[in-house]
Amino acid sequence: MVTNDVSSGTAFAELRRTIANLERDIANGPIVPVVTPEEIRRHLTSRYDFSKPMVLDDAVADTEQMLRTWQVQITHPRYFGLFNPSVTLASVIADTLVAMYNPQLAAWRTSPAANEIERHTLGWLAAKFGLPANTLASFTSGGAEANLSAVIAALTRAFPDCAEGGLRQLAASPAVYLTKEAHHSFEKIAHMTGLGGGALRKVGIGRDLKMDLGDLAKRIAEDRRNGFAPFMVIATAGTTGAGVIDPLPEMARFCRSENLWLHVDAAWGGAAIISPRLGVHLAGISDADSITCDAHKWFSVPMGAGMFFCRHPDAVRAAFRAETSYMPDKMDGSIMDGPTLDPYTTSVQWSRRFIGLKLFLSLAQHGESGYIEMIEHQARMGDVLRESLKRTGWHIVNSTPLPLVCFTREGLDTAQFLAALYERQIAWMSEVRLGGGAPVLRACVTSFRTSERDVEGVVREMSTLV
Ligand SMILES: Cc1ncc(COP(=O)(O)O)c(C=O)c1O
């Protein structure tokens, strides 16, 4: 198993020791906090009125204590929750470096090293996805911003005039196709872009929770007949609820034949592309027009680190064009052997944090092989969890190669069960309604530190609660 090895190297030695101690303490401590808002507010009010300076060490120690006691410990090996990962040591050091140098990545000229490091890292992953060399990519605050970028780029390509005239001048109302298992960020995006929630067409799903392609074709034909303008289809590669991967090759073929933009939201599942065992399940992603993949999910770096990839650089440039007199002039190209770009002209953000360093440094330390090991280890732990649950009388209700298990048993009251699980600090997991059905339990392996012993122990203790 990949661990945050602190024995080698002297850089940030103290920080490395602190992190190692913290990891150990978190793993040995509680997972679920017991606290009320009043308790925290009383503490804050009594100590932090900011009327006079405090000794920094005291404030840091107190803040750390608050974090230690008053949060769900998502880096705990028995946290089986939403896709919040344990983090690599390299990525924590990277975030510290970023805070210290505080580079501003909006313009290439201001931060050449940081911009090129991001470009290099994104280029590596774009190639893994099988995207063309001219793919335009950027780091984002997260998957929601990456999904937003996709919808804006797709809209701009399909309706070039909307950049100036807005959606209201379009002759036909644009429509986007996705399933109800897709991420809820698209609801907000529909609102933010002015498409409106009504533009989101919820395509049917099969019993396997994957998009029903027959229904997709039917809905699009119907909409065209009724004067709407279908322009985009959203596939999810690893749904939030059940880890399901939509049929990417068939969707890619369909979208190409219908001249529709295919966006693949692979916020969590995208990292699987580097794994020989799991990457096959993402076949077809290379034909996507755009892809969302979060480094702060399965690449195990701290939040917020999303990524947006698009094979249509012109659409991205048109979508995010910006000209101002107060930004530095463009490079004249004389000292470089290739074109550069200013990220503020190709993405949503203006001031930009150096998001990509944590993925870059972490990849540098662990290498592709280390990452494959991390990802495949977690997939194996998912299998162990599945098998162990089956053996002890639970019914598995989802099917995915990813380490996300949804399960239930006869007569289970999920809310009551979870309350008992939390109270006894056995693990953190959650409930979900798949396809609108009854609530079931949802456990996702998100930590590269989760061991077989952790999984077996949790399942054993769960048996005592039913
Ligand atoms: C499939 C999917 N897409 C998008 C997102 C949103 O990502 P973020 O939380 O990084 O904005 C998530 C978050 O869990 C997700 O599961």
Describe the structure concisely for a colleague.
This protein has 466 residues and is α/β, with parallel strands linked by helices.
Structure characterization notes:
The protein is of the alpha/beta class. It is 41% helix and 12% strand. A 7-stranded mixed β-sheet has the order 1-7-6-5-4-2-3, with helices on both faces. Strands 8-9-11-10 form a 4-stranded antiparallel β-sheet, covered by helices on one side. The chain is globular. The chain binds pyridoxal-5'-phosphate. The site of pyridoxal-5'-phosphate has 15 residues, from helix 6. The site of pyridoxal-5'-phosphate (PLP) has 15 residues, from helix 6.
Backbone shape: globular
The distinct ligands, each listed once, are: pyridoxal-5'-phosphate
Instruction: Estimate the mean pLDDT confidence.
Output: 94
Indicate the proportion of strand residues: 5-15%
Any idea what the radius of gyration is? Answer: 23 Å
Largest sheet: 7 strands, mixed
